[in-house]
Amino acid sequence: MSDLLARLTSLLPARADLAEMRRDPRRDLLAGLTVAIVALPLALGFGVSSGLGAEAGLATAVIAGALAALFGGSNLQVSGPTGAMTVVLLPIVGAHGPAGVLTVGLMAGVMLVALAALKAGRYMRYIPAPVVEGFTLGIACVIGLQQIPNALGVPKPEGDRVLPVTWRAIEEFAKAPNWTAVGLAVAVAAVMLAGARWRPTVPFSI
Asked: How far apart are the C-alpha atoms of 184 and 178, rounded to whole Å?
């Protein structure tokens, strides 16, 4: 019991951590602003994709970023919204609403603290890279399909299954094409891709 308590205590910030935070505040502030500029459009987009709205994504990114900075265990970590959670949360929002998301979030937090206390992170090295890359690619495809109704300028059809919703959106677009929306979506994508090549340090995603 005492060993488990010691492990939980080790997760809390110590005096050395607080002293490290005050060592170079200018560099930390610049790094924080850089991450915030990149994470802002992600937070807004993922909030909309999850079905809770842009304001939920923004609030979650701010709170999670502050907690990660205070309780994080690495000097190199970057915290921010993740695309994987939008796919997981969308059916939960549809079935149980925002209260269901809060419950699932608390359950996931308890599980993460327990895994951290058990030092389970060291076993991540045994997960093959293709598994992680395949998972990430699958999530990217799902998020891309979720944006098809917006890109086509049609109301999002009912349902939480991505492929049927996307197909119905394409059928609606075929009945009454909205080329202005398509042109705007293509232009935004072109600016983001070309801008990232032209000036990698400028956050064109905003």
From this structure: 10
Q: How many CA atoms lie within 13 A of 16 on its CB side?
A: 4
Residue 75's pLDDT is what?
63
DSSP 3-state assignment of 95? helix
Q: Which amino acid is at 168?
A: R
Cα–Cα dist 73/58, whole Å: 24
Residue where the block lists tokens 């990698």: 200
- In angstroms, the CA 47 to CA 146 distance is 12
Asked if 78 contacts 84 with a C-beta cutoff of 8 angstroms, the reply is no
**Tens-place pLDDT, residues 44-53:** 877 777 777 7
13 Ramachandran zone, left/alpha/beta (phi>0; psi -120 to 50): beta
Query: Looking at the predicted structure, is the pLDDT value of residue 110 above 80?
Result: yes
**Residues ≥6 apart with Cβ < 8 Å to 171:** none
Contact 165, 157 (CB under 8 A): yes
Q: Given the structure tokens 């992170």, which residue do they identify?
A: 121
| Total-model pTM | 0.57
Structure tokens at 153: 């300028």
Distance CA 168, CA 129 (A): 35
What's the CA gap between 16 and 8, in Å, rounded?
A: 17
The amino acid sitting at 206 is I
